[in-house]
Amino acid sequence: MNRKFAALVSAVAIACGTVTVPALAQEAGQVTEGFRVTPYLMRPSASTMTLNWFSETGTPAAATVTSADGTVVFDGEVAGEAQPHLAYTEAELNQEIAGLEKGSWLYSNSNVKHQVNLTGLEPDTEYTYAVTQDGVSYADAFRTAPVSAGVTGDWEAFTVSAFSDSETEPAGRPAVSGAREWDAPTSLAEGSEDRPGEGSAWFEKFGSNTRYGEAQPRYPLTQDQAMKANIAAIEEMDPALMLIAGDLTQGSGYQPAWDEFWRYTAGEHSGIAGSVPMITALGNWETYAAMNGGYGESKQGLATGAAKGRTAYQTYIDTFGSTNEQHQDSYHRVDHGPLTVITMDSTNGQPDTLAADYDGNRIEGNDLALEAADAIGTDTNQEYTQEGIHAAGATDQPDFSEGSEQWNWVESQLADARAAGQIIVVQFHHSAYSSGVHGTAHQSATPDGQPGTPLRVYTPLFEKYGVATVVSGHDEMFERSFVDMDGDGAGVMHYDVGVAADGLRGEYMVKNADGSYSEADFNTYSEWNAQQDSPELWRTDANGTLQLVDGGKHYGHLQMDFAPATCENYAAEITLTPVHLFPVLDSDYNLVDIERRTYDDVQTIRINEDGSAAPRGTACEAPTPAPSAGQPASAEGSSTGGILAVLLALFTAVGGLAVQGLPGVQGLVNEAFRR
Questions:
Q1: Do residues 161 and 183 lie in contact, with contact meaning Cβ atoms separated by under 8 Å?
Q2: Is the pTM of this model over 0.85?
Q3: How far apart are CA 179 and CA 555, in angstroms?
Q4: PANTHER family from the entry (predicted)?
Q5: 257 pairs with which residues across the strands?
Q6: pLDDT tens, 65-91?
């Protein structure tokens, strides 16, 4: 049984009424039986898995975990622990959102965490589990990681999905106001008509934003629609892991944002986190409390908002941590077969600085000029200081700067993974190489208060230990940069994947003396970004409606496919595919479909036998022979498809099940019949 089968079981159970999530409460206080957050996976490895869920009643739950051969590895009662710091604040209870009925997005004011820590599991093995909370049942399945024996070990191909900046919030639901700005592309495709302008039917339908002195059309999908589509597309690819490089919510200290995040990943819209482990990083929004004090320090002297946000994040997210218990879930490592994922905390560098500190001492030019002056900076957030956040109670805020405890931990993990022959992927939030507004530095002539450039201090380490890919976000770009400081051809591919469901920003534009705007053009390492390299193509359809038919920047994610070698001169390869979700509209601009498309920048990284990235341009020598004609294919697809079809027929016969309206289910049903 694979994860798609497990997801269908869960979706069918929801449809049949055996799984519920709490009803929404107009006034927080109505405690509902069942799951506030359905079970989701944490701490994945070859022998462990943690199962978390949240209830409102706090009643002990019953949980059973069983291996594929029927061995019961856990069967018991699971008590809950109340999390009073997650209660709604008065500001949250009184919030009004245009387009939504007041309070319609709220649950009760009770959050109780339940947890099962599974150890001693068998590697690369399927386990099913069932949890019953207050008489409400939930069932799903997961697979443990393969044994980590280096890239030359015995392993099969697998997929990892990566994104950042989902920034979920209930305000992302309403039509028009729930959609975000859509920065103009650098240029339009050859033969394209102009983008819709003021007075157009597009502006009337979707609204507009003023960007760089000009009115620009809003994007046709709301943040809510984008997140649903992105999760559904990821789920269809059956990934082994899901990397989220920070900014999960629109303020981690804002509880409705967390409620919304779990609706997409472990609740009413999808249960993907119940079968695919999430590996997450702290972003700047994880140190932000939104209406509950923001970052906090600028108003109160203490970083209360930042501390509140970090505490909520660490309540929901459990990791293997580091060697320092005080740093809790700030930075951590996960191994999955030949892959090692090292997650860093990029939210605090030392010393703390402000962009204004460099007034009168600014450096003109691009990033090469700042690198030459050793002026890439040290601090990624000028809104609070380490002293302030510690005074507010967040003792876990680590420094990432050279020589810090986190630095030493990262280097030790890189060295260990390289000695073990692992492929190394690193993730953190603040993109070190970006063409966006956060891509500059405090000392730049075009400064930013939350730059990612200080993370460039790690570039020599990443090259030394043969890191294959770095995944980040923050700038809400879809961009790829290649960095090869030592010139040996085996550099590091950096991605900004901040296109999950929030902003669709373009390059950093600076205002000229005459009032016009031009690109800052700061990141010289950029090789591709959606804004520049996928020009929009607008055409008028047969009904006289101006339509986008191709190109443009859209929401999406990075698909990372890991596979053993097909050639004798390297051990493995990673295929990196930038995926985007393209909205298809009818002549009245009603949404007809959201298509999964890929940008024309698919990259392949070939991996040496020691797990390091091979130089670009490495040719394939002596390809591995293809299977001979008539060789039987793997039975997994056909048998699973048969099970799915039988299961569907069974449920249809018993209950007249209608699956069309269930999120994610129709695709699974279609998959069953395709197989």
A1: no
A2: yes
A3: 12
A4: ACID PHOSPHATASE RELATED, PURPLE ACID PHOSPHATASE
A5: none
A6: 999 999 999 999 999 999 999 999 999
Work out whether the CA dihedral 440, 444, 447, 451 comes out positive or negative: positive
Pairing state between β 469-473 and 423-430 = parallel
* CA dist., res. 527 & res. 504, Å (int): 19
Cis omega before residue 564 (within 30°)?
no
How does DSSP classify residue 23? Answer: P
Q: Which of 358, 501, 357, 492 is nearest to 427 (CA)?
A: 492
Task: Count Cβ neighbours within 10 Å for each residue of 11-20 and write b for 16 or more, e otherwise.
Answer: bbbbbeeebb
Q: Which domains does the chain have, with CATH numbers?
A: 157-173+221-624 (3.60.21.10)
Using an 8 Å Cβ cutoff, are 172 and 181 in contact? no
The DSSP annotation for 461-509 comes to HHHHTT--EEEEESS--EEEEEE-TT-SS--EEEEEE--SSS-B--S-E
Backbone angles phi, psi at 13, to 5 degrees: -60, -40
First to last CA, the chain: 14
Quote the tokens at residue 221: 């999908």
Token pair, residue 484, equals 């090869």
H-type alpha helices, 486-623: 530-533
Asked if 308 contacts 292 with a C-beta cutoff of 8 angstroms, the reply is yes
Tokens of 362: 């600014």
Whole-Å CA distances, 29 to 25, 38, 106, 527: 7, 20, 10, 52
Q: In 3-state terms, what secondary structure has residue 674? A: helix
Which pLDDT tens digit goes with each residue over 499-556? 999 989 999 999 999 989 999 999 999 999 999 999 999 999 999 999 999 999 999 9
> According to the model, what pLDDT value does residue 634 have?
40
CA distances (Å), 10 to each of 1, 7, 117, 436, 541, in order?
A: 13, 5, 21, 40, 41
Spell out a b/e string for 494-526, using b for 16 or more CB atoms within 10 Å of the CB, else e: bbbbbbbbbbbbbbbbbeeeeeeeeebebbebb
DSSP 280-320: E---GGGG--GGGTTT-HHHHSS-HHHHHHHHHHHHH----
Q: Beta strand pairing status for 509-511 and 517-519?
A: antiparallel
Is 133 within 8 Å of 34 (Cβ atoms)? yes
